[in-house]
Amino acid sequence: ADSSDADVELPTIRHQPEGLEQLLAQTKFTKMELQSLYRGFKNECPSGLVDEETFTLIYSRFFPQGDASSYAHFLFDAFDADRNGALCFQDFAVGLSVLLRGTEQQKLKWTFDLYDVNKDGYITKEDMLEIMKSIYAMMGRSTESALGASMPAQHVELFFQKMDRNRDGVVTFEEFLATCQE
């Protein structure tokens, strides 16, 4: 019985992501880092896939004083590169690699894509207002009441004053990149 138990435990201890060599090439993580990330990912998501509901529950733990569900939705969409409604370890590792170790331009592109809510290639005031409202909700009611309900809209106006260089009502990636790099 002991030897069969050992056989059963081995896969749960080893935690080797599928396509490790491919992930090594796609990310800026070492083999040990990928294995450690995978171990944590599998502990939270034993099936190997994370749906949006599970992602939101996990993410919301970091913001117990507010409602992180709306912002978690935007983050989930940003990590779900293949748009299949579930995050696999590869989606997670590639996104995390960009955020932690990507070039400045890669990080800014990832952020731009997060803010481009409807994925049309532009950040509109509507996109940005949705993001701002979700950030305020995530930070909690005390932040919202202390700063006022109009603060998300004021932040959007400031964002567009700085970013919308040609004043056409939308922010392109080129405008976003140039302004951020200044």
From TrEMBL:
<protein>
    <submittedName>
        <fullName>CSEN protein</fullName>
    </submittedName>
</protein>
<keyword id="KW-0106">Calcium</keyword>
<feature type="domain" description="EF-hand">
    <location>
        <begin position="103"/>
        <end position="138"/>
    </location>
</feature>
<dbReference type="InterPro" id="IPR028846">
    <property type="entry name" value="Recoverin"/>
</dbReference>
<feature type="domain" description="EF-hand">
    <location>
        <begin position="67"/>
        <end position="102"/>
    </location>
</feature>
<keyword id="KW-0677">Repeat</keyword>
<keyword id="KW-0479">Metal-binding</keyword>
<keyword id="KW-0449">Lipoprotein</keyword>
<keyword id="KW-0519">Myristate</keyword>
<dbReference type="Pfam" id="PF13202">
    <property type="entry name" value="EF-hand_5"/>
</dbReference>
<dbReference type="GO" id="GO:0005509">
    <property type="term" value="F:calcium ion binding"/>
</dbReference>
<dbReference type="InterPro" id="IPR018247">
    <property type="entry name" value="EF_Hand_1_Ca_BS"/>
</dbReference>
<comment type="similarity">
    <text>Belongs to the recoverin family.</text>
</comment>
<dbReference type="GO" id="GO:1901379">
    <property type="term" value="P:regulation of potassium ion transmembrane transport"/>
</dbReference>
<dbReference type="GO" id="GO:0001227">
    <property type="term" value="F:DNA-binding transcription repressor activity, RNA polymerase II-specific"/>
</dbReference>
<dbReference type="InterPro" id="IPR002048">
    <property type="entry name" value="EF_hand_dom"/>
</dbReference>
<dbReference type="Pfam" id="PF13499">
    <property type="entry name" value="EF-hand_7"/>
</dbReference>
<dbReference type="GO" id="GO:0015459">
    <property type="term" value="F:potassium channel regulator activity"/>
</dbReference>
<dbReference type="GO" id="GO:0008076">
    <property type="term" value="C:voltage-gated potassium channel complex"/>
</dbReference>
<dbReference type="InterPro" id="IPR011992">
    <property type="entry name" value="EF-hand-dom_pair"/>
</dbReference>
<dbReference type="GO" id="GO:0005634">
    <property type="term" value="C:nucleus"/>
</dbReference>
<dbReference type="GO" id="GO:0000978">
    <property type="term" value="F:RNA polymerase II cis-regulatory region sequence-specific DNA binding"/>
</dbReference>
<feature type="domain" description="EF-hand">
    <location>
        <begin position="151"/>
        <end position="182"/>
    </location>
</feature>
